[in-house]
Write a structure and sequence with these properties.
The longest helix has 14 residues. The chain has about 260 residues and is α+β, with helices and mostly antiparallel strands. It is elongated. It is about 30% helix and about 30% strand.
């Protein structure tokens, strides 16, 4: 990084602060600056890039807006823990999505039991209250860090097919499709933030009542039958769902433009 300032100058069409920002971002993303490590000070960056303090502050400000660094008053700027991101406009399992981005995913299976369906689980899976369902608890580790706690409910017949499956390294979605011959169709999601229950806080190495992102997901097969109901609890600051939405044009507007 020491010689990168040689690339900078007013002759480039790219503003100096942006060149600096891009160089520092690359250093963060390629591991030169590790998560929670202290970034060089403003004066050190001034010397490194031979620019004004205002230019350095603008570059650091943009990195902070992007969530790549955070500032501690009186101590300087530090590298943020990177967030894993999942696009929810397509139906994918967690490991299926994260592995495609180069993350190492390991599942720690906490328990696998057959229990009587509660009223809520029965209603979601369209079965009788008290009917047997598989209840699976897993902790998801991303790059060896506990990131989410997942509780999955499946009808008894499907649960029995998963008993011998490798739940430590494989997504349930892929097991259902490839091993059980289930064609997945769609999923309904709801997302909110709640205080972590004690057992979830312990598993995710959080303090008691720390906030977690809770996702309820009900997955249907291609015939619109509910087959998988889950509670997904994500550690705050480690995960982000992303989606793109389009504005629906009204019929009246379309007619005017026509």
């Amino acid at each position: 990084m020491q010689n990168n300032h040689a690339k900078f100058g007013p002759d480039s069409p790219i503003p100096l602060y942006q060149q600096i920002k891009d160089t520092l971002r690359s250093g963060i993303l390629d591991g030169h600056y590790l998560p929670h490590s202290r970034m060089p000070s403003e004066s050190e960056l001034q010397e490194m890039f031979e620019v004004s303090r205002i230019t350095i502050r603008q570059a650091l400000g943009d990195l902070q807006k992007e969530g790549l660094i955070f500032k501690v008053h009186g101590k300087g700027s530090f590298v943020s823990q990177p967030k894993t991101v999942q696009n929810i406009t397509s139906l994918q399992g967690f490991a299926e999505s994260m592995s495609s981005d180069g993350h190492e995913i390991v599942n720690r299976v906490i328990s696998f039991n057959f229990v009587a369906a509660s009223e809520e689980v029965a209603a979601r899976l369209a079965i009788d209250v008290g009917a047997k369902v598989a209840e699976i608890h897993r902790v998801r580790l991303v790059n060896r860090e506990p990131t989410s706690y997942e509780i999955t409910f499946l009808p008894e017949a499907l649960g029995k097919k998963l008993q011998r499956a490798d739940l430590a390294t494989r997504d349930i979605f892929l097991i259902l499709e490839n091993d059980c011959g289930v064609a997945l169709g769609s999923a309904d999601l709801s997302i909110d933030a709640i205080p972590a229950q004690a057992f979830i806080a312990r598993a995710l190495e959080l303090s008691k009542d720390a906030p977690v992102l809770r996702v309820e997901r009900l997955t249907h097969d291609s015939r619109h039958q509910p087959i998988d109901f889950e509670y997904l609890y994500f550690k705050g600051g480690t995960f982000q769902y992303r989606l793109r939405v389009d504005r629906k044009r009204s019929v009246k507007s379309s007619r005017k433009n026509g």
